[in-house]
Each structure stands twice: as C-alpha cells, then as structure tokens.
Amino acid sequence: MEEQLKFEVWALVELFGHNQLSGKVSEQVIAGQLFVRIDVPATKKSPAFTKYHLPTAIYGITPVEEEYATRMAECIGAQPVNDYRHNQVIDEIIREKMKELQELPKDGSPKSLEEGSEMEEGPELYF
Predict the structure, then answer these.
(1) Beta bridge partners of 46
(2) What is the CA 78 to chain-centroid distance, rounded?
(3) Cβ partners under 8 Å of residue 117, min gap 6
(4) Residue 24 β-bridge partners
(5) Which of helix, strand or coil describes residue 14?
(6) Spans in the chain with pLDDT lower than 50
(7) 15: which residues sit within 8 A by CB, 6+ positions away?
C-alpha cells in the first residue's frame, strides 16, 4: 500500500480573480469535501487568520521559505474579511446601537424599569 504524504508547505497561493495569499498551506476535509487551507501569518496591519478554498479556485501554488511567505503576506496585505458587504452590516449594527442609545432617558435610568419597582444598588459602569 502506498504511503500518503501529508501536504504542508509555506507558499504563495494564486487564486482566480487576481487574488493572492501567502502563508502555510495544507489540506483539510470539511463536510466530506477537500479544501486547501491557507494559514496567513500576522502582519503589521492584520492578525493571523485562516482561509479555506476549494482546489478549483486555485491556479497556482508556489512553495517558498517561511521568511519569504511571511514577507509576502505583509506585502499582499490580505485581510481576514475583505468584502464590502461586511462594512454595510457593521454600519447597520452601529446605526441601530446609536438609535438605541438616543432612545435612553436623559437621566440614564433604564426605560424598562417599571414604576414602583426598585433597582438594586450596584457598582456604576462606565462605557
């Protein structure tokens, strides 16, 4: 029986859509489907993160040394989430939270406090 080698290499990964990622590349099965896992190292502008791609989304993998892959990750500047729609969702959440804050009574008391009920004393919280 042939021994299967574990695929794990530092590499520059070229994806369809003129995108590149650089990091430690391996394989991982998720829900019975084989994915290429790319562990992108932390850079000055982004924390370390992991991306999964189907092999059909990749047109090139160039093995490189770890130092080169790390420097390329810095140069490429990939972000964990880089879709403009995420910004829309975040903006929507911020607008909703700001509206909730504006609806608070001016004295700072919770509006859900029913008349006649008493609120327990506790430490003041500052945000």
Answers:
(1) none
(2) 11
(3) none
(4) 10, 39
(5) strand
(6) 113-114, 116-117, 122, 125-127
(7) 21, 53, 57, 58, 59
Q: Are strands 8-15 and 49-53 parallel, antiparallel or unpaired?
A: unpaired
Dihedral of CA atoms 103, 108, 114, 120 in degrees, nearest 10, equals: 150
For the chain, the straight-line distance linking the first and the last C-alpha, in angstroms and rounded, comes to 63
C-beta separation of 15 from 53 below 8 A: yes
**Of 34, 40, 35, 41, nearest in space to 53 by CA:** 35
Q: What is the pTM of this model?
A: 0.62
CA angle, 11 then 69 then 56, to 5°:
30
Cα–Cα distance for residue pair 23/63, rounded to 1 Å: 10
Contact of 22 with 79, CB cutoff 8 Å: no
CA–CA dist 78, 23 (Å, integer) = 11
Helix or strand holding residue 21 (H, E): strand 19-30
The string of pLDDT tens digits covering residues 47-67 is: 999 999 999 999 999 999 999
